[in-house]
Specification:
The protein is mostly helical. The protein has 22 helices and 2 strands. The longest helix is centred in the N-terminal third of the chain and has 80 residues. InterPro entries: DnaJ_domain, DnaJ_domain_CS, DnaJ_X, EMIR, J_dom_sf.
Length: 622
């Protein structure tokens, strides 16, 4: 017979597996409970605004949002729950869903109101901190939900780091495993002429190709090889080779397919850089430091690259996995677009930082006058270019009102001057938005009208061709049917040309909105830069106000507020020169800004002479 001790030992041994099993079950239940709580928390946070509010106004806004969302969600549940219940369990499910819906319709709005009240209280409690932080020159970080000191130079460093990360991520997507290793043997390509021109391996990196191009370009530059009649041709061929190999997509296509049969037509899209094209088209080279790369240009650049990648993706069946991955990884992401805009704003802020230095270092009124006169001369030079007056008005108003707003909040009682400037800016932005809507409607209407007229002309030509064929292949005038095609092409070209002013007016409305928003953010970065004391930031704002006032005054005097793009001849001349300039730069040739303006003038004169000649011939014939 077992002793009590032995019996207890046997019971412990027998119960050990059960205890272990119970422990596992408890852990599973606990893990499931944590997952459910996490999911419920995510749903709650997505439904109600629970982030830390900046101040009392932000708390009130957040509270109203929560109350509204709760009410809307309750009504939606009241409607959706009975329907869902009826679909699952008929009449019984309908009434069960109705009960759940009624409960949700009561609970969700009440919860929203409670969360809203809590957010308002948090906002009021944070108001004192907000006032003190704002006076100290701190900025509210919307992501971290806290007050921070902003540093302009540090922002640029972060932008450069993020650029490097994005490039590394793209490079990582193009290969599997050891991406850093390069095969000892050269990569097999269909044609290596361009590689030989640059004197590089088919495995050469983008940096190696760039270095080789500059090295070879110096050897055969026409200005340095005056005695070599073939120098210009060599230099052009070298530039073309570099243009192909410096772009990931065109290089992949060249490695796979070799040189295209018709390089002039096939590579034209690849060699046209939208950034260069729009800079020439709008004459923005003199104002680029103030506006950066226009949004419309960067968007067109991204779209062209994406289209090229899609065209290459159509032939992915015949590609290697590495080539296909490189194409898929090359698409422009939202993160890249946002980073590019952030970099644009930081670069403008850094330029303005250097631009206002003479104002900050001025010792007396004479120095300030010298600064003012230099801005006036710069503005007059910009006004002499095409669309220069419009640029001046847009840039000038943005800089003037941003400086006025910052100074108003810093120097006037209760920030009255700042609020007045903010209202002035809001009113102007509203006007620009309405102009944008009007321009968009006008462009759409004009485009549809032109397409209908072209289609009507095509139908008329087809009817005429059919009648001519029925009469023996000749038209009534005895002309061959092929002449109808030429006439149809002329009509189509004429109608499409008539849409150009409306499209360009829309582009200008987009540019104005883009420039205003970009300069707003750039000025904010300049005025909140914690690397300098508040007194220096105030002086920066005063200098920016002076620049803006002079730009706006001179632009307005030159008619910049009432911009017009009705001169079709001027538009066509600029477009032609823009294409020539961007093609020349793509081939490695330097085209100065003064050269492009002179080419535009010559193109306009040639068109005017041609128009006058046609008019004279028409008179003589009559």
């Amino acid at each position: 017979m077992k002793s009590n001790t032995e019996s207890r030992q046997d019971e412990a041994v027998a119960g050990a597996p059960v205890a272990a099993e119970d422990s596992v079950i408890r852990k599973d239940d606990q893990q499931q409970m944590e997952e459910d709580l996490q999911e419920a928390s995510e749903v709650f946070n997505s439904l109600f605004s629970t982030r830390r509010p900046k101040d009392g106004w932000a708390g009130l806004s957040s509270g109203l949002k929560s109350a509204t969302k709760g009410t809307v969600a309750g009504l939606a549940s009241l409607i959706a729950q009975p329907i869902a219940g009826a679909q699952q369990d008929g009449v019984k499910g309908f009434f069960g869903g109705l009960a759940t819906g009624v409960a949700s319709a009561v609970a969700l709005p009440v919860t929203g109101i409670c969360v809203g009240a809590w957010q308002v209280g948090r906002g009021v409690a944070n108001s004192v901190e907000a006032v003190n932080a704002s006076k100290a020159g701190m900025q509210w970080d919307n992501e971290k939900r806290e007050w921070i000191f902003y540093y302009l130079n540090k922002d640029m460093e972060e932008v450069q780091e993020l650029e490097a990360v994005l490039k590394a991520e793209k490079a990582g997507k193009t290969s599997s495993g050891d991406a850093a290793k390069i095969d000892i043997n050269e990569k097999k390509v269909k044609d290596r002429e361009f590689y030989d021109l640059l004197g590089v391996s088919t495995n050469a990196s983008a940096g190696d190709i760039k270095k080789a191009y500059y090295k070879e370009a110096r050897k055969c530059h026409p200005d340095k090889c005056l005695n070599d009649p073939e120098a210009a041709a060599k230099f052009q061929a070298l530039g073309h080779a570099y243009q192909i190999l410096s772009n990931e997509q065109t290089r992949a296509a060249y490695d796979k397919n070799g040189k295209p049969e018709s390089s002039a037509d096939t590579n034209m899209a690849n060699e046209i850089d939208p950034l260069v094209f729009f800079a020439v088209m709008f004459g923005s080279h003199l104002v680029e430091p103030y506006v950066g790369e226009l949004w419309i240009a960067t968007t067109a650049d991204s779209m062209m690259k994406d289209v090229m990648e899609q065209q290459q993706a159509l032939d992915m069946e015949n590609m290697t996995e590495e080539e296909a991955a490189k194409i898929l990884a090359g698409k422009t992401s939202n993160a890249e677009v946002m980073l590019k805009q952030r970099k644009r704003e930081v670069k403008i802020a850094l330029y303005l930082k250097d631009k206002v230095l003479p104002f900050l270092e001025a010792n007396d009124d004479d120095d300030l006058l010298v600064f003012k006169v230099s801005i006036q001369k710069e503005a007059s030079k910009i006004a002499d270019t095409s669309f220069g007056a419009t640029f001046l008005v847009t840039i000038g108003f943005a800089l003037e009102v941003e400086g006025e707003e910052f100074l108003g909040f810093q120097n006037t009682a209760l920030g009255v001057g700042g609020h007045a400037a903010r209202w002035r800016k809001t009113r102007k932005n509203t006007q620009n938005n309405w102009k944008l809507v009007g321009a968009a409607l006008n462009a759409g209407t004009t485009g549809r009208k032109a397409m209908k007229e072209v289609e009507a002309a095509q139908r008329a030509m087809e009817e005429k061709r059919t009648n001519a064929e029925l009469e023996g292949g000749k038209s009534k005038e005895g002309e061959e049917p092929s002449t109808d095609d030429e006439e149809q092409a002329k009509v189509a070209a004429q109608k499409l040309e008539e849409t150009i002013p409306a499209l360009l007016e829309l582009a200008w409305a987009i540019n104005i909105r883009d420039i205003s928003r970009t300069l707003k953010n750039a000025c904010k970065k300049l005025f909140t830069d914690a690397e300098v004391p508040m007194a220096t930031r105030i002086r920066r704002a005063e200098a920016i106000h002076v620049i803006g006032h002079e730009f706006y005054s001179i632009g307005k005097a030159r008619g910049g507020e009432k911009y017009s793009v009705k001169d079709t001849a001027d538009i066509k001349a600029r477009a032609e020169v823009a294409v020539m300039a961007t093609m020349a730069k793509a081939q490695g040739q330097e085209v100065s800004d003064d050269d492009t303006e002179e080419m535009i003038k010559q193109a306009k004169n040639m068109r005017a002479d041609m128009t006058a000649g046609r008019g004279e011939n028409a008179k003589n014939e009559s």
